[in-house]
């Protein structure tokens, strides 16, 4: 029986290095101004949409906090559950259904996210654009996964789903940074 355990003295430096790399990358995204003209146009366009009271609903004012983090639970939960079921023999239909339901849950979450993003200051808007791009990558992976699953290619479907789940992890970390950024100085 293998009784090896992780040595915290060896794990901590690796985690610190990964964390340092991640925070450095996020800092670069926050500071780069290359996309600012496009961001300003998009933000103005979203703010100019005649949404009336729907804008307050999308921004979560009746809840007292943003609606977007609540809505993302549907696709994330479905896709994570599909990944678990993909590991269980005979659960292809359920995993396919969860993949499809996750894709259906993307639109409301994205609409609420764009409504929030339109009012973000430049640093958060820049990271938000990266968040949107990684969301698009995740959704694309899951759309290809669903097509493969429905087309009788379950292995290809699972592989695309795993790629999608990796993109979901990145986009979740970006979204978390936007919402909870803390100065580490």
UniProtKB/TrEMBL annotation:
Pfam families: DUF2231. The keyword Cell inner membrane does not apply. Keywords: Membrane, Transmembrane, Transmembrane helix. The keyword Transmembrane applies. The chain crosses the membrane at residues 95-115, 127-148, 160-180. Residues 64-181 form the DUF2231 domain. It comes from the Bacteria. This is DUF2231 domain-containing protein. It comes from Streptomyces amritsarensis.
């Amino acid at each position: 029986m293998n009784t090896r355990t992780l040595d915290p003295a060896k794990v901590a430096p690796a985690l610190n290095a990964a964390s340092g790399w991640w925070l450095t990358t996020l800092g670069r995204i926050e500071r780069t101004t290359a996309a600012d003209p496009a961001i300003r146009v998009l933000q103005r366009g979203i703010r100019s949409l005649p949404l009336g009271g729907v804008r307050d609903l999308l921004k979560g004012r009746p809840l007292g906090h943003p609606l977007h983090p609540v809505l993302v639970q549907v696709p994330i939960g479905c896709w994570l559950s599909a990944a678990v079921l993909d590991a269980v023999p005979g659960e292809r239909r359920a995993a396919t259904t969860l993949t499809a339901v996750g894709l259906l849950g993307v639109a409301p979450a994205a609409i609420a996210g764009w409504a929030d993003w339109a009012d973000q200051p430049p640093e958060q808007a820049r990271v938000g654009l990266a968040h949107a791009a990684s969301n698009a990558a995740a959704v694309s992976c899951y759309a290809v996964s669903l097509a493969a699953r429905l087309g009788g290619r379950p292995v290809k479907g699972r592989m695309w789903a795993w790629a999608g789940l990796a993109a979901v992890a990145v986009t979740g970390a970006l979204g978390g940074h936007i919402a909870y950024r803390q100065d580490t100085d």
